[in-house]
Description:
Blueprint: H1 12-24, H2 29-36, E1 44-51, E2 62-67, H3 78-90, E3 95-98, H4 110-117, E4 126-128, H5 132-137, H6 139-148, E5 152-153, E6 157-160, E7 168-172, E8 194-198, H7 204-208, E9 215-218, E10 227-228, E11 232-233, H8 239-243, E12 247-250, E13 256-259, E14 277-284
Parallel strand pairs: 1-14, 2-3, 3-4, 4-5, 7-8, 8-9, 9-13
Antiparallel strand pairs: 2-14, 6-7, 10-11, 12-13
Amino acid sequence: xxxxxxxxxxxxxxxxVEWTLHNAYRGHWPARLVRALGMQRRVQVRHHxxxxxxxxxxxxxxxxxxxxxLHAGPTTHSSLLDEAFAQLAAADADLVxxxxxxxxxxxxxxDAIADRLRRIRAPSGIYAVMGNHDLWADDAAIAGxxxxxxxxxLVNQPVSLAAPFAHVALVGLDDPWTGSVPRxxxxxxGDDRIxxxxxxxxEVMLHLGDEPFDLALCGHTxxxxxxxxxxxxxxxxxxxxxxxxxxxxxxGGGRTLIVSRGIxxxxxxxxxxxxxxxxxxxxxx
Length: 285
């Protein structure tokens, strides 16, 4: 499989694996088989409330919906995408955030995501970052499709939310493994707005160090995808992805990191004890 995007760490071994899977998974039979056997897991909606010091008492909480790792392709059935986007629409969120890895193997699969994304509405906007699979497949094509569907793609870029949430700044960072995250302050010194960080993988914490933020949302880990009873992951890439395999984590300094298990599949279509999920976060006082 040729490298079409700007992603790093696309080794000869990775290229060989993807070429093999592309040929072995023709017809998208892995996703169809898992569904036919009744083994496709339902999408869970996980709710969190994050209290932030300094939130204006006159402003209601910001309702954020976060979805990640959709992985449109041969190991993610279209009905799973339908279910995920139905839950996303039902969340009635102010702000919708997309955590990357929209496809598996080919950028052309982004059409399945873009078609569904066009039906999502969020008064405070829809924002997206890239994941490692996007940066390998063709991040320019994927970003273009997302933008055309109504999302704004952020690459190491802060944005200000509109009123009544003008006191909140969203910072979308590049994938910390295959992309390039600058070692810079998230916002200019003296900017005391509440900070929400959007990134694909928990490894972004290696770049952030002790940089202040209030909430960070990541995916990438799949919660192990194939996990033991109790949700203990068997295999998760990267040291921080293992430490923060899923769920909510206090990472010090009043900072909260929440990691989604994502939706779709990559090499394997079947999930065990790592149900797909979307996150609904109420951020406020």
